[in-house]
Design goal:
Family: Belongs to the GntP permease family.
Keywords: Cell membrane, Membrane, Transmembrane, Transmembrane helix, Transport
Strand content: under 5%
Protein name: Gluconate:H+ symporter
Order of helices and strands: HHHHHHHHHHHHHHHHHHH
Pfam family, one: GntP_permease
InterPro entries: Glcn_transporter
Radius of gyration: 22 Å
Distance between the termini: 37 Å
Number of helices: 19
Length: about 450
């Protein structure tokens, strides 16, 4: 019965979002309440369950996610992102343009949402493609693959951070192993997959002379932008702090997280905490991309306000996913999954990936799919002795699979690259699926040796 209620709940959620066009956050809360009633929960406790789910999800994530958006916007508005892309392109040369785009997109994607990164890089990549006289998609597919992989695997991106937090995984380790997983995913789904889809969709690989309509293109004079080193440091500073903490724990304490650190251990632990790392990085960004560039506090504040506006609804959607997840846990669905899978020979890592894939196909949102999958597999973690870092990465891989018409990214890719529905399904949907499957394979291999 719990599975029937869950399936009906997912169908209803899909109906509300796609057919009725109801706001995703509202749909999640409404469905969470109805699913809670269907699972036989005490009506008086439903509100507390939803409140608990929202609070647990947004506790640390609000700062990590919010400050990350602010850092990304400050770097973007100062021209730092433009400088990163242009410098890498100049260094790599025209013969290795795909590699340059991948590296630039990977770096920028670590501090920007997929949608923001796509909007930011599209005009730059188009200009480079036009100058080099190559098809837009020749460079666009590697760009999209890099941005998507960072969104699925690398904290401080919201989805992997939220999933890691829900599973109790060390975020620093998720970041380090996420990089190991993301690199082959980008190579396979980027330059290699471009060669494959070019054979099936030759009409899409033409040299375009005009930009797809996606709003105002912001232009920068390179001499007026911050240096490459300062721009890259500002974008990557949170990741650097978290990586240093993780490497320190691996080198000094054998990878074991210290329960009550003291002295230097405490300082390293504090700096490596995602929330503290984000606070320090934002203060640095305010100086490096603000005051240091001659911008006054009013201009800096405008960038910060715009960043907050851009993520407000996404934060609520994440909160709604947390509420839905908590209902599934408190309502017994997680225990039902646990009971069903206890005697199954299916790998729990594969199970986590498969659950995320099903939810991704059903709901569209990678973040909601990841959060809900994390809630479903949480009861399996202790009983089957699963590495939470590997499970978080497997769920991240599954949450990227088979993006289609219920995903905003699908429509963004279609419009930005001026494709029809068939071309978008054949190029974008398959690209996301290739990342997902490649990610699963790498996670399974890592799980054998970690």
């Amino acid at each position: 019965m719990p599975f029937v209620v869950l399936i009906l709940g997912i169908i209803l959620l899909l109906f509300l979002i796609i057919k009725l066009k109801l706001n995703t956050f509202v749909s999640l809360i409404v469905v969470a309440i109805l699913v809670a009633l269907g699972l036989g929960m005490n009506p008086a406790s439903i509100a507390n369950t939803i409140k608990l789910g929202i609070g647990n999800t947004l506790g640390e994530l609000a700062v990590v996610f919010g400050f990350g958006a602010m850092i990304g916007r400050l770097v973007s508005d100062s021209g730092g992102s433009y400088r990163i892309a242009q410098t890498l392109i100049q260094k790599f040369g025209k013969k290795r343009l795909q590699l340059a785009i991948v590296v630039a997109s990977f770096i920028i994607g670590m501090s920007l949402f997929f949608e923001v990164g796509l909007v930011l890089l599209t005009p730059i990549v188009f200009a480079v493609a036009l100058e080099a006289d190559v098809p837009f998609l020749y460079l666009g597919i590697p760009m999209a693959a890099a941005l998507s992989a960072t969104q699925g695997f690398l904290p401080p991106q919201p989805a992997p951070t939220a999933v890691a937090t829900a599973l109790g995984a060390n975020i620093g380790q998720v970041l380090l192993f996420g990089i190991i997983v993301a690199i082959p995913c980008v190579i396979v789904a980027g330059p290699l997959w471009t060669k494959v889809v070019r054979r099936f969709f030759p009409d899409a690989f033409v040299v375009k002379k005009s930009l797809p309509a996606f709003g105002e293109v912001k232009e920068y004079d390179l001499k007026d932008t911050p240096s490459f080193g300062l721009s890259a440091l500002t974008s990557l500073l949170p990741a650097i702090f978290m990586a240093v903490n993780t490497v320190y724990q691996l080198a000094v304490h054998g990878g074991k997280e210290i329960k009550n650190p003291h002295g230097f251990d405490a300082v390293v632990s504090m700096l490596g905490n995602p929330m503290i790392a984000m606070v320090i990085a934002l203060l640095f960004a305010i100086w490096s991309m603000g005051f240091h560039r001659g911008r006054d506090m009013k201009q800096i504040s405008n960038s910060i306000v715009e960043a907050v506006k851009s993520i407000a609804m996404l934060l609520l959607v994440i909160a709604g996913g947390g509420a839905f997840k908590q209902v599934l846990i408190d309502g017994g669905v997680g225990d039902a999954v646990k009971g069903l899978m206890m005697h199954s020979s299916l790998s729990p890592i594969l199970l986590g990936w498969l659950v995320a894939v099903i939810l991704r196909v059903s709901l569209g949102s990678a973040t909601v799919a990841g959060m809900t999958a994390a809630g479903l597999v949480t009861p399996l973690m202790a009983s089957l002795n699963v590495n939470p870092v590997m499970m978080a990465l497997a769920i991240g891989a599954g949450s990227l699979a088979a993006s289609h018409v219920n995903d905003a990214g699908f429509w963004m890719f279609k419009e930005y690259f001026d494709l029809d529905i068939k071309q978008t399904l054949g190029i974008w949907t398959t690209l996301e699926t290739v990342i997902s499957v490649t990610g699963l394979i790498v996670v399974l291999l890592l799980n054998l040796v970690v």
